[in-house]
Amino acid sequence: MQNNDYYKSDEFLELLHKYEEARRNNSSVFFDLQEFNDLIEYYNSEEHVDIAEQVVNQALTFYPGASYPLSFKAKMSIWRDNNIEDAHYWAEQIADKQSTDYYYIQGEILLAEDKPKESDTYLSKKLLEVPLDEYEDFILDVAQLFLYYNEVELSKKWISMSNLQDDPDYIDLKGNLAIIQGNYHDAEKIFDSLIDEAPYDSSLWNRLAAMQLLNNDAESSINSSDFSLAIDPSDTDAMINKGNALSSIGNHEEALKLYLKFHELRPEDEMGEILIGHTYSQLGKYDEALKYLKQALSSVSKHHSALFLFHDILLIYSKMNDYEGAKEFIKQLPLHNMLSESDLCLLNAHLVCTTGHTDKAYNEFKKAIELSDDIEDVLLKIAITALDECPSQGYRALVDYISTHQDTKHGWSHLALLCKKLGLNNEAQKAEDEARKRNPIEAHQILDGDITQY
Predict the structure, then answer these.
(1) Looking at the whole model, is its pTM more than 0.90?
(2) Residues 6 or more apart whose Cβ sits within 8 Å of residue 190
(3) pLDDT tens digits for 76-117?
(4) Is-contact 438 409, C-beta < 8 A?
């Protein structure tokens, strides 16, 4: 696939213009397969997945069996729909079973099925069949795939097989690996070296800024975002990074200006409305906060994002002491069309907490755990709900879960937070020790960061 420089080239911009013109006229347009592939990857990188899928469908009308469009549909089945059966279906429609796209998606399906060793075995075998001119790219792409699924040791294994230590993709991957492992100082050095080679690449400055914020270095993050904005004043990623850094140091007024500018430039992206709503809430302007968060809710189609927005909105009603408004808000929403049964339990837990019936939250938390197919996600949501309103009930639910799943790597960080909230300092330290030993990445995110950002 192409790099970011290609997307700025006259050749690609002409292709993009031709496609956008066809979209506006609601007409079909023919491209060669590589051009369709480039458009798919471009729109996906710009987080316009809906448009990417339109390109995919058009590509398949001209090129049925094409490997990249079909592998994209399989990936969407995994990432968005959590439907492994559909992923298998689309993967098997690929005509060329010797293409690297086919190998990648089969390896990814195994990862999605929680079979990392089988995925490694399969991809290692297929490496022997990869053409020489694709060999090194295949190694780095597989290393990136394992890193995406947090299989750090397997990613390190594949990185070590590469002979491209001076290649920007290799260096970039090493930087990502350092971030995943929490080695932010090492990652900063790596990204600095990339920036030395490409000082006007705003995407590198943006990634450096995001990494510096993860390392709680807001001042450096702001400076890096300023470099990116100097290169491209309309860089929306830089606006978000700088806004988040400013917000982290309490400068919500300046953060709000950046979020409003982001929303002006990307009105279709609900993230702008969410950040504006959160910032207005921080400033105590609750009516404005509700306005933007409710607008964002109307754009959210998947229950994962919807539930957090429901909680945010209910929390604002709670701050306003408007419990009747919260109940009315719940009644007016088609919840069952947007949320899973587990998420409905969490929402009920939040509502009973905010209305003073905290004793009922424990049973809702327990039911949410029992009904969830994503334990990492549900434990995070329980912690967020319980911390402000009903820490005792959240604590009981987490203790119950851990006592019956003693080998779990999830939940320890959340338990540590709730123990601290309840003043159970010895128990909090034990839970934190377990968290940092069993799941250091989650521990850093939850215990060293701001849990409300997740």
Answers:
(1) no
(2) 171, 172, 174, 175, 178
(3) 999 888 899 999 999 999 999 999 999 999 999 999 998 999
(4) yes
